[in-house]
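Archive maintenance. Older records in this collection stored only the sequence; we are now back-filling the structure field for every entry so that each record is complete. The fields below show one back-filled record exactly as it appears after the update. Entries are processed alphabetically, and Crotonobetainyl-CoA:carnitine CoA-transferase CaiB-like acyl-CoA transferase is next in the queue.

ARCHIVE ENTRY
Title: Crotonobetainyl-CoA:carnitine CoA-transferase CaiB-like acyl-CoA transferase
Organism field: Paraburkholderia unamae
Length field: 389
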Amino acid sequence: MTHPTSPDHALPLAGITVVAIEQALAAPLCTCRLADMGARVIKIERPEGDFARGYDAAANGSSSYFLWTNRGKESVVLDFKQPDDAALLHRLIASADVFVQNLAPGALTRAGFDSATLRERHPRLITCDITGYGTGSETSKLKAYDFLVQCESGLVSVSGAPDHPGRIGVSICDIGAGMNATIAVLSALALRSRTGAGSGVSVSLFDGAADWMSVPYVHERYGNGAPAPQGLKHPSIAPYGAYRTRDARDIVISIQNDREWAKFCAVFLGDADIANDARFQTNNARVQNREALDTLIGAAFAARPLVEALSLLGDASIAYGQLRAVADMAVHPALRTWPMATGGEPLQMIAPPVRAPWDAQRFEAAPKLGEHTARIRAEFAGVAEEASA
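Back-filled structure field:
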C-alpha cells in the first residue's frame, strides 16, 4: 500500500505500511522518520488522543512536540478493548509491514496484540517494541519518562556544572530511543528483503542512554572514576571549553592534539615557548594543570574583542564555536528550515538531519485527532484478518 500523499515512488519506503500504537515522543519520532522516507504511517490514538498533543501550545496553538514527530501520518481513534475496534486493529496489522508500539509493558499482551503473537500470526510482520528499561528485570515495570531515565542512567551525574549536576536540556533519552528504533526497523526491513521473514526488534530508553555512557562507565570501572560535571569544559581534553572575550562573548575552543596546541600558542597566545612548558606539553599534562592553563588562556581571550579573537583562531586553524542562545541558533546560517502546514499560519520547522535525494523540501501536516478514522474504517472494512504483511 503506497503512502497516500507521496507521488514520488522513488521514496525508499514507498509501499511500506506502518501501524503504530504510540504516544509521547520516542515511538512517534521513529515512525515520523519512516513517514519521511515514504512509509504510510497509521497512528492509533485513544479517544483523548496522544497526550503529547497537550504538552504545550507554542506552535501557533498546537504542541511543538506533536507537530515535530507526527507529520505525514494518519490518525485513527479506536479502543482496542472493544471487540469491533479490536477486529479493525487486527485487519490493519494484517495489512501492515511494520508494527510499532510504546505502551506500558503488558498493556498489549492483555489485549492479544503482543509482538510475539502478532508475528506468529503474520510471519512477514516486523514488530518494534519501545520500553523504558527493557524486559525481564526488576525495573521493567517502572514508568520511564525521559528525565527519570537521564537520572537512572547516570547522564545527569556527568552533566551540568561542578557540584550542580543538571538535566540535559532536551528529551535526549526519548530522542535516542526513537532513532535507535528507526535503525532497528530499517535493519529488519533489509533482512526481510533477503529472507522473506519478519523480525521482532526492541529498544529501551535506558539501553540507549547506557550506550552513550560507555566512556564514563569504563572510567568508573577500570580507570580513576567517572568524571564529575564539568560545565563548559571537557573532562578528558584540554584546552576544550569556553573563554570570555573583552566584550563579554563566550567562545568555545577545541584543541585535539599537540600540533594544534603549538600553533595556538604561537599565533593566539603569541608565545611559541608556552607549548614546551612541561605543564602543558601533552594533553594529559594540560588536563592535570587545567587551572593554570585556563588562567593563561582566559587572560588572552579577555584582552581581545570577539572579532579579533575569531580572526586569530582562524589564522591558527583552531576549531571554535560561539556559545549561542536558542534565539541565535534560530538565525544561524547553517540552520535549514522547511514550511509545515498547520491550522493557522504555516510554520518554519527545522529540516530533518538526513539530506537525501528523496527530500520533499516540505513538511506534511500533523493529523488532527481522529482525522482519518472514517476513511480508514471504510478502507479496511473488507480486509481479511488472516492476510499477512
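Update note: The chain has 15 helices and 13 strands. The first helix runs from residue 26 to 36.
Entry marked complete.
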